[in-house]
């Protein structure tokens, strides 16, 4: 696809990676994984089976790693961040299970999604279980402040998901409404995951706020790129089908920009495809949509918007001293954005 | 239906009611209702709309009333039980929303269910919102002990729902497996709702345990009668369609008893109807099923089993002094069982 080649040329050869982060938190992450496997256990065997399928499916563990790296940045000593990082992953997994039901997805990270294998019912209920289990883990940790942060994040996520449901198939959705959705459904958990690192380390409010701001803006950048990738990356690379959002009529930034920059004929095209979901079965409409996005630079500008939020995230870390933790957290920003290429 | 008449004769004329309970907690319940309306608010309007539909649909508010009456029994002074009773109702409502999605129900308390009006997606997400909001309310209350009780109850409920999903359509399900399901999916929240009344009042562990035991056994009795009513009460009275469980192939105690007491021909009938879901569309199979239940007294014995758990619940209250709260709580037991008639 032309866009990929152009962008490849634009930046250098060797892309940023999560290597520094992985090295920084690998011992802790192994403990988080053990905690996850341990605590998703239930005498009802279907629960660890289904939960294990999605948790083991090879997600990046980005959110729990954010908690671990943030705790490290704050010089946290002690074991509390391990359990709380597992909580964050449980909440994330619960929302994935419910998302796949809501989106009627059949693929997740390149594998059959849990709802495709075990049905929607089991996915809803195991999601509820993981969500409850997350709160049980927080209770064991015993911090009302952490409970406040994650219960608030959880209702914000749910609000964001409902808002997304309402704006689906509405091509008049503004960039601001879209931002409100991704801020809630994605960035709120990134923000909470990072803030918890400062909370367990008993750092001053300013550092809590800095890590929250880092997480929030990183989360926005992450979701922008995710939405851009749905129109550009290869399915194998991403582990999910290209054009999913298009087929569901999701209104993401690449669409919003192309719609606003297009002429009447193009808007009629977008309405037919995304509002009426009247789409050519041979993929011709998807190819045409990508063509319009290239014409209006809406994929490139989605990346540019992501860079803006990435820059805010980077500056938010400014108050922390340089070192391996700060540098790993900075690398995540570049990784989240540059995985677009 | 013959069973109704027989049972009507068996007991007296004027049945027990929730009147004493309602009188006892009416001021508090009004505050709980205000809290519920207040706290299901969200800038995303669909959330209070959908949540309001199910919450306002005229449920009995049995679970929050249990918290209120238990707090009264424990001489609790102060406002904490109000917010926590609202939490209990939020958790209950969240599970109802997810249940209706899982059961594909189109009716709830005689009205169209939320999933029938707004779709499964919105029901899943608003359920998640109410669940998160419940935890936010608990965090405001600030008691780790309450958080522990309700987060544990929530995962037990989810486990019970998954277990029910697994045993659905399996006529070999034992009475014990069935009991395990209803203990988890229904009784655990009754138990938690009651126990919280002792916790807010800082009562000794023995009283906490007594109220928990009362709630657990009351919850089992309640669900037994609920499952019995699906084969006997009039739809209008119950606000839901008779034979729902039959059509879905749910294995409840009336079925388990009739199946075990039946002959080979009858078991073939049960398997065809509940495992293969091969059922006559004119309701003839449902009528035949009810006939078999009458033949084997399986509805009557389901009530008898409920009486057994009701008796345990009654004795659990023995350590508390007599008075209006204790008497109201005792009335609930009779009401839950005698609504069978």
Please summarize what this structure is:
The structure is a homodimer of 341-residue chains. Chain A has 341 residues and is an all-alpha fold.
Oligomer: homodimer
Radius of gyration of chain A: 20 Å
User: Mind describing the biggest β-sheet of chain A?
Assistant: 2 strands, antiparallel
Kindly state the mean pLDDT of chain A as a whole number?
89
- SSE order of chain A, one letter for each helix or strand: HHHHHEEHHHHHHHHHHHH
Unreliable stretches of chain A (pLDDT < 50, length at least 5) are 1-13
What characteristic shape of chain A results from the CA principal axes? globular
**Major protein interface:** A-B, 40 and 40 residues
* CATH level 3 topology of chain A: Farnesyl Diphosphate Synthase
State the name of the first-level CATH class of chain A.
Mainly Alpha
**What's the structural domain tally of chain A?**
1
Give me the count of strands of chain A: 2
Indicate the percent of residues in helices of chain A: over 70%
């Amino acid at each position: 696809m032309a866009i990929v080649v152009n962008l490849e040329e634009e930046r250098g050869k060797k892309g940023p990676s999560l290597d520094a982060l992985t090295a920084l938190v690998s011992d802790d992450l192994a403990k988080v994984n053990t905690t996850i496997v341990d605590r998703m256990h239930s005498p009802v065997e279907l629960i660890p089976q289904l939960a294990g399928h999605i948790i083991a499916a090879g997600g990046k563990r980005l959110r729990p790693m954010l908690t671990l790296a943030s705790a490290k940045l704050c010089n946290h000593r002690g074991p509390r961040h391990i359990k709380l990082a597992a909580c964050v992953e449980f909440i994330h997994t619960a929302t994935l299970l419910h998302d796949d039901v809501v989106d009627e997805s059949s693929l997740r990270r390149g594998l059959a999604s849990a709802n495709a294998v075990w049905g929607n019912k089991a996915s809803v209920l195991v999601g509820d279980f993981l969500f409850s289990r997350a709160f049980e883990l927080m209770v064991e940790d015993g911090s009302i402040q952490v409970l406040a942060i994650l219960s608030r994040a959880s209702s914000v996520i749910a609000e964001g998901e409902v808002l997304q449901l309402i704006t689906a198939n509405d091509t008049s959705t503004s960039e601001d409404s879209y931002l409100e959705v991704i801020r809630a459904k994605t960035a709120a958990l990134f923000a909470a995951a990072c803030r918890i690192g400062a909370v367990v380390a008993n750092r001053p409010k300013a550092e809590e706020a800095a890590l929250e701001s880092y997480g929030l803006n990183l989360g926005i950048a992450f979701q922008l790129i995710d939405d851009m990738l749905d129109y550009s990356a290869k399915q194998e690379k991403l582990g999910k089908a290209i054009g999913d959002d298009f087929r569901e009529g999701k209104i993401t930034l690449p669409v919003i920009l192309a719609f606003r920059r297009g002429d009447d004929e193009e808007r009629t095209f977008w309405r037919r495809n995304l509002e009426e979901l009247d789409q050519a079965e041979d993929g011709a409409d998807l190819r045409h949509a990508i063509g319009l996005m290239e014409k209006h630079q809406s994929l490139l500008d989605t990346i540019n918007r992501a860079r803006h939020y990435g820059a805010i995230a980077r500056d938010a870390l400014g108050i922390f001293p340089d070192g391996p933790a700060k540098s790993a957290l900075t690398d995540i920003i570049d990784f989240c954005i540059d995985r677009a290429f």
